[in-house]
């Protein structure tokens, strides 16, 4: 069978995930997860296909128009896959399909049926079951198939409390892939630093990043890349990336690859001309200090909220010292006066999705556990029309790394991307000498 059907994780891992899911389901229940479908970009062209993360998590199967059904009765536990049947003509045009015959042996599934026969099989398979774990409005095409099937469950339950919690704690194999995603992403940020100079366009730097992702086997970015020169950095989700980079400005790059379905998510901010100005240095050092303190605090037993409270304190004190905020630090924190310069959270879970599955608790107060992976991304954004001393206007800085919570603290999966001022300046300087520019 073609290697394209093989997941980048051992089959045992997907089998074990399904078994663990079945173990958490109540007796006489079924759990239904649909795959993603092809999405049209324009006329007869589709966006690149990306599998649904939950479906992938349980199957390692990368085709559209499929559904996984887990069935648990008093006597048996079964995994059943609905998928597209083989079709030589369509496969000649659109690519290979695994097909109904090969799904059980290749994916270690108990039974497989054509997805077109879903409405015929589903009621029979689930006839004596009382509960269905399902998330409506997640995949509308799935809702439609289900609505066309005659079912009579008495209970409908949400599978997210089971599956999201499983996804939140990464296995050793997942950690290996996430380490690789972090490493490739770091290499791309190094490449961006090497290639940046005044008058190049933001999209030119984006292209260097995407090239670096691709040549290491990460075919896609895990989200749309942000390459934001100067004041553009103050637009948090700036993705136009169509402006020329200016001498004397900073550039903020938030870009991450997707490797074997797992996301990297790094932000680095550095000077277009390779040398930080004094005001840029002051803001950058403040964000870096806050980020380093947060990394010390993001360990098992603590929460994102605890680290963020400390980050806020450091930033507010720093902004007061620089004359950007005026007043008493405690009162400014109380009034949330920092929100005009720091308006997002400190970090989020990372995994198959860049904003990964799992509950956060109120104000992200959930206690961190070994095996969780999250980002740490403080920033300060002082827009060009902010009412602050002139030298600080138009400076936006974010520094983002990916952390694995370990037994003895945490591991920075993205440490290969430089973030110390000296390291960034040296790297950029070296490349300029080499290029004689
Ligand atoms: N790049 C998305 C984020 O940092 O959350
Ligand atoms: Mn992030
Ligand atoms: Mn990011």
Mind explaining what this structure looks like?
- There is one protein chain.
- With 437 residues, the chain is an alpha+beta fold.
- The chain folds into two domains: 156 residues, 3-Layer(aba) Sandwich (Creatine Amidinohydrolase, Chain A, domain 1), CATH 3.40.350; 268 residues, Creatinase/methionine aminopeptidase superfamily (Creatine Amidinohydrolase, Alpha-Beta Complex).
- It is built from 13 helices and 19 strands.
- The strands form six sheets. The chain has a six-stranded mixed sheet with strand order 6-5-4-1-7-8, sandwiched between helices. Strands 9-12-13 form a three-stranded antiparallel sheet. The chain has a three-stranded antiparallel sheet with strand order 10-11-14.
- It is globular, with a radius of gyration of 24 Å.
- The N and C termini lie far apart (51 Å).
- One of its GO terms (molecular function) is manganese ion binding.
- Keywords: Aminopeptidase, Hydrolase, Manganese, Metal-binding, Metalloprotease, Protease.
